[in-house]
Amino acid sequence: xxxxxxxxxxxxxxxxxxxxxxxxxxxxxxxxxxxxxxxxxxxxxxxxxxxxxxxxxxxxxxxxxxxxxxxxxxxxxxxxxxxxxxxxxxxxxxxxxxxxxxxxxxxxxxxxxxxxxxxxxxx
Amino acid sequence: xxxxxxxxxxxxxxxxxxxxxxxxxxxxxxxxxxxxxxxxxxxxxxxxxxxxxxxxxxxxxxxxxxxxxxxxxxxxxxxxxxxxxxxxxxxxxxxxxxxxxxxxxxxxxxxxxxxxxxxxxxx
Lengths: 123, 123
Description:
The structure is a homodimer of 123-residue chains. By secondary structure, chain A is an alpha+beta fold. Chain A is built from three helices and seven strands; from the N terminus they run E-E-E-H-E-E-E-H-H-E.
């Protein structure tokens, strides 16, 4: 089992100025496929999900790693330009016990495009 | 141990037209205190958290219930008018095994103010 998981919304549209842009295949699916095709860092897996209910802020994904780690939701991701940064951020996250990567070591998209974070669900 | 948890952001400001409004005590803290003071449904507990990184969409909270349930993040909550609906929604969520409450049985704020949802983290 991988230690941490990127759960990618495969139905996300891109949102520009608050409006969802029509585009097929959907950018969320393209982001998922690009991540699946990438050389994944050790301990990182990628799964798809048909809707993360973050429809106003696509593309979106969840970065999670069990009940001891914080969980993060990132938004406004671009399948064409953000794949490398997402994987770097996931690798840094996988290297922590609690999911908290020092601020300066986070990719810029993880610093600026957090939609929400959830504390460890230990109990 | 309670079955499900409302994790309330205690540092959330209210956001109007994309701007965070200055107000003390912060609406997030008032929401937390109002929920703590309420008659909680069976199986529901309330905890506070200093920041859920949902700062553009306050007030916010997380509704979670272990690795078998979907987790939800709700946004733009009002400490003065939404407490009853939040508790009704949390009770309905607690009554499910997987966290999925039929659409029509969800409070309107849970239907319309979802910021994101996260699939069960079973493995």
